[in-house]
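Thanks for the sequence, V.! I ran DOMON domain-containing protein right away. Repeating your input here for the record:
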Amino acid sequence: MLLAHFALCLLPAAALAIGPSNNSLAWIPFDPTQFDGNAVLDSNGQVQLFWKNGADHSTFGIASQSTGYLALGFSETGAMTGADMAVAYIGDNGSFVFENRHATGFVTPQVSLDQTDNMRLKAGGQANGVTSFIFEKKNKANCLQDQADVANDSWQWFIYAFSDQNTFAQHAAGDMGKQYIKLGTGNTVSLNDARNVSNSKYLTVVQPEVALPTDETTYCYTLQKMPATNKSFLIGERPQPSSPLLHHLVLYACYGPADQYVDMLGKAPNCDWQNFSNPCTGFVTEWAPGMSARTFEEGFGKPFGTEFYEYAMLETHYNNPQGLAGQKASTNYTFLYTDQQVGTEIGTLTLGDMQVSGWFMNPGKPLVAHSTICTPECTERWPSEGITAVSVFHHMHYRGRNARVQIVRNGTEIAPLSSLHDFEYGYQYSKALNNIKLLPGDQLITTCEYNTLNDTAPVPGGQSSRDEMCFAWVDYYPLNNVLGCTQINPQLSDPSQPNETVAMCLQSSAQSPDIYASTSFTSSFQHLPVSGNNCTDNSFTALGGAAVVKTCPEKDICFSLNIPQQSTSSGPGDIFFQLSAPTTYSWVALAQGTMMSNANMFLMHSSASGKNVTLSPRMAPGHQMPVFNDAADITLLEGSGISNGIMTANVRCRNCTKWTTGEMSLQDSSTAWLYAHLQGQPVNSDDKTVPISKHDGEGGFQWDLSHATGGPDVNPFTSAGANVTSSSSAAGIQTNTRMAQAHGALASIAFVALFPTGAILVRLANFRELVWAHGGLQVFSYAIFATAGGLGIFIGNQDASLQEPHAIIGMILLGALFFMPLAGTIHHRLYQKLQGRTLWSYAHIFTGRIGVVLGMINGGLGLQLANTGRAYITVYSVFAGLMGAIYVSVMVFDEYKRVRTSSKPATASSSASAESNKLDGDVSEGSTGQ
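Predicted structure:
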């Protein structure tokens, strides 16, 4: 599987070189001075990245000391999932190939439909053991389903892979990696790497070894005493997880804990988590899978000590879904700290669902959103000048897909605090922000989105790994005493309380959180206008309306699909799809299947009035022209017709999950579809059985039906609530029409023109070099036929048609005629010697004659197999019929003449004539016999 482990075994991040690198760049084949920044991607300096930020496009250069393909990916998390990839290599013809690919997961990155706008090659090559290329990338992606934005104002995850083979395949172990690189020039506070800090001290909090139960979920709590100081500052962290069962580590600050909790100091961890309530409410930091060490820039730190907190609680969460017995675990978390006053004190604000449990998500959904609101009544307690957010850590469990924190100020949504697409549980990290200002009175909406397609029961929020969470921890400055801000339902914790949504503001100075009513939960606000990313993000699918997946395999032809939720929850049901194309096309078709044969096809063309469309369901029984399928249960819906030169068919299909020769599961994440079209005059017919001419273009793509599932059982293409998602999964199921045309043309030239001409020539002409002219022409004819045969075999492998009669006859002819030059040479020599036909003569002569006639007939079978239009068949039939008639007539006449000559008694004159023609006698008998 191509690059299947591209990010599964990424190396630890090497130290970055921001700005010009100290490594020697003499081996770089392009001019590094044209760029503003440079970073070493690998640990030994053999993969170098360069960049120059631009307003709309940024320019990147990458070079690797390798001699095969080179790939650079733009990722949101450092994982392959969702990565927008630039790939370059030397093609089979020796040219330099540049491709834009997109990875939908830890699978083969697919070639994107957009090969010109999102990324553009500027220069590239491979020489002297180095592969390199320079390209431009659009900063704001056209569609986040297919591409990725460039974080050119802050930090960007890059993933890379290289090889010494130019075949794009899985890289060798270790020939890949990831780096989190600062592209912007803004101030940086939080770095995702371990850096040495002068005059710093070390603090390690430890959870002693515990014997883990076989329970799936275990939380253990260990109280820690911070170093004795009035005021010191944490400036770096070095998590050291030790058990493979460890789900996360969290360090909480304890503000004035009661004596009963202080008594935990120095004792064994408390793992009776279901009967233990953690009194420590201040979030300090967390480790989760994928996270690396972290260091604050000089002058920044998180305070602790008697002026803030003296105790901290280390929480460890172990996940043991297999119920393994005899497992033991211990862990520690090391920090760098300083007792010197820092210039800026950092705090952490907890957003998200702090109640954790009590909420549920619907199963069987491609995306389900869960949101909580931080109300203005809490943020008004910030300093009057506001706070500045410098990083955010989004946390979900295995179903997590997307996350965001929106800022609503004075009733209007402004630029988001943070957004994260393509979340991967094993690639969590602290996302650096470009110093975003938050003001008192701001409303913050935290949303997490989950994929519940594999669930059959409601999915709860909870502490177990199989449940879900939604958190966003925001580091900011200057420090204040607001620790957390969210909403809760008191009844979920205490059944005697009212069942209502209220706000919660948690402060370090308070004994308990402040609970109050707020109008923020019902007040509306003006949404941020959408700019760029013009296909609707998955983020909005769950907010109402139908989920529609859209693919435009060609720039002016588009197809869309929706599967109502009811269809997947109640078994096979309705689906909705749309065909859209300009009226410059005679017809356009969409089909379910991997090849035309037995595909479930829907063909759209203009109606008799020229103002509407006709939709014809068809099936192709084998490689024949599709015929009307009266079993299809389809309805042409509102919104169909012709408007502004565009044909549109909005269709409901009630039996598209199973047809006579195939079926499609509505839960399938990879379904095969075909399309075809013909440009030209409009059909203008209401007849659903009207004959059509052969297509002039075709192809295939795949749809992930999970992206199309959702919404009511109504026409989604006229519903304002429909949310359209562009699809990037166009597959390489393309049949090369030009290759098929070349195959047919070459074979026709061979059998309709050249082979018969060579045979007729040897019957009617008479000159000394005739035998060489005949042999040379027939060898040349065979070379043309062999080329056509090779193309035919390639096409047959592509569309599985090698078992068709046309292909079988063609391969028999290709083999039989291969031996004709040898048979002709033997016949020629024996005839000169014996002055008469031998067994070799008859084998050569009649094999040739049968081959020519069979080749002409097979050409007609080929036209039928390719569903060629009537005009092409008519032209071929006329020429093949005319040449065939001439050929057969000449052969019959020659045999008649030969019989008559051999039946006459020999005379002196005839003997002399025969003697004078000895050199040519074998020609007159047909040295090839055709």
